[in-house]
Amino acid sequence: MPRITPRTLKGFRDYLPQAMLPREALIATARDVYRSYGFSPIDTPALEYLEILSGNGSDETDKQLYHFTDNGGREVGMRFDLTVPLARFAAQHAQELGLPFKRYHIATVWRGENTQRGRYREFMQCDFDTIGTESAASDIETALVIHDLLQKIGFERFTIRVNHRGVLNGLLENLGLADQALPLLRALDKLAKIGPEKVAAEMERTAGATSQQTAQVLELAALTGSRDEVLAALRPMVAGSETGEAGAERLSEVLGGIRAAGVPEERVELDVSIARGLDYYTGMIYETFLGDLPGIGSVASGGRYDNLTEAFTSQRLPGIGASLGLDRLLAAMEELEMLPNARTPAEVFVPLFNKEMLGPLLKITTDLRAAGLRVELYGDAKKLGKQLQYANRRGHRIAMIVGPDELAADDCQLKNLADGSSKKVALADAAREITLLLEGGDD
Amino acid sequence: MPRITPRTLKGFRDYLPQAMLPREALIATARDVYRSYGFSPIDTPALEYLEILSGNGSDETDKQLYHFTDNGGREVGMRFDLTVPLARFAAQHAQELGLPFKRYHIATVWRGENTQRGRYREFMQCDFDTIGTESAASDIETALVIHDLLQKIGFERFTIRVNHRGVLNGLLENLGLADQALPLLRALDKLAKIGPEKVAAEMERTAGATSQQTAQVLELAALTGSRDEVLAALRPMVAGSETGEAGAERLSEVLGGIRAAGVPEERVELDVSIARGLDYYTGMIYETFLGDLPGIGSVASGGRYDNLTEAFTSQRLPGIGASLGLDRLLAAMEELEMLPNARTPAEVFVPLFNKEMLGPLLKITTDLRAAGLRVELYGDAKKLGKQLQYANRRGHRIAMIVGPDELAADDCQLKNLADGSSKKVALADAAREITLLLEGGDD
């Protein structure tokens, strides 16, 4: 028969076990942490009416949308993020959900990205949001969730940078530059890249700011020190502006709450230079950087928004949320050698000596599983060396060898596949001995 | 601004927390069981080249495929099952994967189904397969995995029906009807629905079988009794046919292995009447029925196939696999009242008395989480009654009430939200006391 070349589309990828195992572990950790704060899972369709997806989006988004006409003549699109679906979902089900509504959503999205920039056209997002409250508690909780996530994943050195959009807006109000916020923020966003002189020049050019005004904006953005020092320094700069004072007050509450919850001081930094996009966020903003790999960019980001659902309903739904950057985190973990090298979830491998041993080994492996172990029983009675080669390649950690002699003597060989060492134990003790060996290996 | 009506496409659905929580629990159970046998996770793209998806499929499948031309002019389609992607994946990565290869794949698929039959156009499949071996061990393991799945999900009364395609084929060979297998199987598939007389009539009409031949086919299909009795009865019927004898021999090995592994006899039945589709399976076949809801149909099905990858490569890859019917199982669990009614994963609810309590409660809830509890802290200091109403509606199980007086006295009220009972305990004992209350409630 004519054969079709097996291949994936450009910008799409297969996940082999070695890549998928740490992915599933990371997602499980995110799920556990989200749940521990009372966030509930939801899911929405991959396909939506095109007008739902593009109604809210920018031109850039529209260009990247996968869309087509379905067999029923409907214009449909594949979701490109989880925020627009959340807005549609919240507007549609608000009555039934009740407020505040805390949800997490871990799902695939599609974007026709330019793959030359190393981007994929299919990837997973991992969002959590609290909708229907403006409470400081939900702002604080967002930072706590990010903190727990990073810690549970296994990072010790990381910094959550927080800011409030009202602070800079307040200063601009005081300087009479409120109407020029957009070009000023655009310029300020380039601070780390092009330095203060060039930013000042751009501000003067695009926003018509005086050199004295730009100096004050840059002074705010340059504030450093402890959280309390930065807070003390910025308060006078925004004094008199309602927006600015409210922003500073909320920052103070949020930082106090994070401290009260017991988060180590060095893990949360007040960084008045971060802005995170120009239009969307209206209150607190969060970015998270790894101490050992800051250059990889923020691995968990988010913020507060005024009104999620305005495209769909007149009911005003403010909210706050953030997103864990799965791909970026996995890349970082790989670079930092935090990922195991296994291609199998089963720690234990049991070779098959001969066909007659199959019955007894089925019983023995069933008992090991009942004791909580993950066990692969090889199905073909090939040469032992071949079977152990398979086990080594897969990354099983322990081979439990039971041949006819061992079975007759009610014992077995436990072979540590990492170092080749071996140990004879009674069959009745095997589950306990294997558990001990595995725990030892984890240290 | 003009508003867009929030709605989902016909045949698509949102999952609200109440539906999503049991879904996630079921998927987690499936994942745990698959892993416990050494099956590894993989994932493949939702979008594939159209020729990959339709090359293997039937006309029926092609009609249901969501497909379109992407911005790069490629003809692409959304996967309609996980088997075709597995075939493409295995052919593409065989060298790197090594054989045998055991994978599970839990992912969404799309089909433009007729929604009038109550079908959805987007649903999740939950497959496991072993590729590259014809061993009896992998046939046995397939039944063991299904057994563990059903048991871990919480079912006690269920039957896995097994058969081997070679048995009926062997009989047909002996009857000189091998060339008429297709119309005969089609007729036989209707046995439960239309009864033996009408099946016999159809066999005579469409396959040109004599009444004596149809009587023998129906005699085979009607065999009942214990596994050993059925096996003993069918052996003489297939004697002399290589296919039939090999099928009977494999059935005997598989049933023996399932018994050796300790599966209770009543949970596995040899049912020579099941055929499961006409073309695909070539060896063992499996169906699973719930004792309390047999009418819902098979909740876990699968079988052995000769060559998964023939559309993509000349390398012959036989395999065996099965699939857990998530939607059907969830429907059954709902009908059997096996699903909890909660809309939140958090057992514990902590109301906020006033803003001054926020700091202490952040510390207290952090400590509860560190003790392994899932805790939602309410963020707005509304009236206690309102907050408890929210907690009741969400399905939190215990409210931990700490007002200023309790804080001063280092204690708290634990309120059982199901029965309204209340208990005062020291703050230091709260985590332990809550854990005890929750365990009591689970009994």
What report would you give on this structure?
Two copies of one chain form a homodimer. With 443 residues, chain A is α+β, with helices and mostly antiparallel strands. Chain A has a domain at 348-442: 3-Layer(aba) Sandwich (Rossmann fold). Chain A has helices spanning 17-36, 50-55, 59-64, 83-97, 136-153, 165-174, 181-188, 191-207, 211-221, 227-238, 242-260, 326-335, 358-370, 384-394, 404-408, 430-442, and strands at residues 40-41, 47-49, 67-69, 75-78, 101-110, 122-131, 158-164, 268-270, 284-290, 300-305, 319-324, 348-350, 375-377, 398-401, 411-416, 422-426. In chain A, helix 5 packs across helix 11, helix 7 packs antiparallel against helix 8 and helix 8 (191-207) runs antiparallel to helix 9.
Question: Would you kindly provide a brief summary of this structure?
Answer:
Chain A is an alpha+beta fold and 443 residues long.
Q: What's the level 1 CATH class of one domain in chain A? A: Alpha Beta
Strand content bin of chain A: 15-25%
The geometry of chain A reads as elongated
Largest contact between chains: A-B, 109 and 109 residues
Q: Provide a count of the helices of chain A.
A: 16
Give the strand order of the largest sheet of chain A, numbering strands 1, 2, ... along the chain: 1-5-6-11-10-9-7-8
Helix content of chain A: 40-55%
Profile the largest sheet of chain A. Answer: 8 strands, mixed
Q: How many strand segments of chain A?
A: 16
The CATH architecture classification of one domain in chain A is 3-Layer(aba) Sandwich
Question: For the CA atoms, what is the radius of gyration of chain A?
Answer: 28 Å
Question: Oligomeric form of this entry?
Answer: homodimer
